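Continuing the series of single-chain predictions for the mutant panel. This is the parent chain; the variants come on the following pages.
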Amino acid sequence: MKFACFICCLFFLSFSSIAQSMETLTNEDGFLKNADGSFIQKTTTFNEEGFSSLPQKNCVVILKTKGGKVFNKVNGRIDLLTEGLIFTVREQDMMCALPIEQLLFDSCDATLSGALFKTGYPAVDKQTEKSLYQVLSQGKATLLKHYSVKFQDITPFNNTNTTRTYTQMQHYYLFLNGKMVSLEKNNTNLPELISSAKDYLSANKLNLKKEADVTKLVDYYNSL
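Parent structure:
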């Protein structure tokens, strides 16, 4: 009987040790860590083609959390699968645990330098209030750009190596009168949504297929 109790105690201690080693904690800065203090890594178990992050490589990011905490000069990028922030420590990719309010790409390539991303907009389509949008124009009408990614897993016959292929997509929204409105293909419904800017559209021969021209139109509407 004593021997059985001893075995049970050993099992309990062993199980507790395993459970403790699997425990994940959030450190004082809000980044995920294991119980032993090491950062949790973002890992994959398959080959990848294409990219599931924005941008492809890390940039210098200023992060503001929902709690108002600001982190300057974070070396990271957006994970489009989770809409979280991937940051790099000692050449290892890690995930940020804190809810994000906004991200500002302080130093990046020409397309994203100065780009501002925000959360907190009403749910629309497959997005929630936690979804990140790039803010292209802000005012009584806010022009937003949402990035998403889809993937396909392919495992060749008689082969255990799976390849995941990513395809990135973009969609535009207008946050107007407290509501999110999805813009149609080529943004054709935008002039009706901000009808007071129609004359500016025709007078300046703006092309609604071009993001820069759409941004100009919403900027003008916000200036009225």
